[in-house]
Design a protein that fits this description.
- The radius of gyration is 19 Å and the shape is globular.
- By secondary structure, the chain is of the alpha/beta class.
- Helix content is 45%, strand content 21%.
- The structure holds S-adenosylmethionine.
Length: 268
């Protein structure tokens, strides 16, 4: 078995804090998309929930607040789990566990509900993860995969022919993610034998103020992508000037679909 932390602990302290900041903002910005899904899968009354790939725990905190049940949060990164433990220390209904989503350390048919948020895009083998989530959920129990993007559906204006393709999936692919995971959710869930419903969670277009706030929080991440792609300092400055100007003028538009899948395990 691969040692999870060897695969996950690749960030410096500074990169880790940046990543955590990004996850926090993302959790805040997507709460309105996730909460209706949580109600749909009966999270409130689920007695035992597994949150797979919990990361720094901001999304797990939303789950812990909503449910009357107990949440087990699992991740392969000890650094992220340590952070999650801190921010959730007052939540007596959450327990943590380090482990690999591709080899879950739980018996068959244990949980009423299994969730994951923005995990499948980053999983080495998303089919194995969905199969494992299916194995550990009880018959008639539900699996929810939320916020799985598809950069192929990205719409961005004003256009920049050099930069747009980088932010339309190339950067994700270079970092080992699958930018087209959204369109594959149905196949993943059906292959695991689940009765499956697929949808798009985000039907609201963010305002330019929200897009700008997100950009400024994640600026280092964006600039690094451009540098890694070989853009010169001058080209990056020019791009950023135009990008921020269209946000300040309130005319920029950004959208990319975030898919979700809800699966129900059949009675065996
Ligand atoms: C983008 S983060 C999302 C974290 C959290 N779900 C959220 O939405 O804030 C993806 C997380 O999945 C974890 N992860 C990826 N592959 C994993 C695997 N095979 N086993 C366990 N955790 C995994 C990473 O360590 C990371 O914390």
């Amino acid at each position: 078995m691969k040692k999870p932390e060897n695969r996950f602990h690749k960030r410096t302290d500074e990169e880790l804090m940046d990543f955590i900041k990004k996850l926090e903002l993302q959790a805040l910005e997507t709460a309105e998309e996730r909460l209706p899904l949580y109600l749909k899968v009966g999270m409130k009354d689920a007695r035992l929930i597994l949150d797979v790939g919990c990361g720094s725990g901001f999304v797990t905190r939303d789950i812990a607040r909503l449910t009357k049940g107990t949440v087990i949060a699992i991740d392969g990164s000890i650094s992220l789990l340590t952070f999650a433990h801190k921010i959730l220390k007052e939540y007596t209904n959450v327990a943590f566990c380090m482990g690999d989503a591709q080899q879950l350390c739980f018996a068959d048919s244990t949980f009423d509900l299994v969730t994951c948020n923005l995990l499948l895009m980053w999983a080495d083998n998303p089919q194995t993860v969905v199969n494992e989530m299916t194995r550990v959920v009880k018959p008639k129990g539900k699996i929810l995969a939320s916020l799985e993007p598809d950069y192929g559906g990205k719409i961005h204006w004003p256009e920049n022919k050099k930069v747009d393709p980088l932010f339309a999936g190339e950067a994700i692919r270079k970092k080992g993610g699958d930018p087209h995971i959204g369109r594959k959710l149905r196949k993943l869930f059906i292959t695991a034998g689940l009765e499956t419903v697929i949808g798009i969670g985000n039907n609201r277009i963010w305002s330019c103020e929200e897009d700008k706030q997100y950009y400024l929080h994640s600026r280092d991440f964006y600039i690094k992508i451009l540098k890694d792609a070989g853009l010169t300092g001058k080209e990056i400055d020019q791009w950023e000037y135009e990008f921020l100007r269209s946000l300040d003028e309130g005319v920029q538009l950004n959208f990319f679909p975030q898919f979700y899948a809800i699966g129900t395990k059949q009675k065996s």
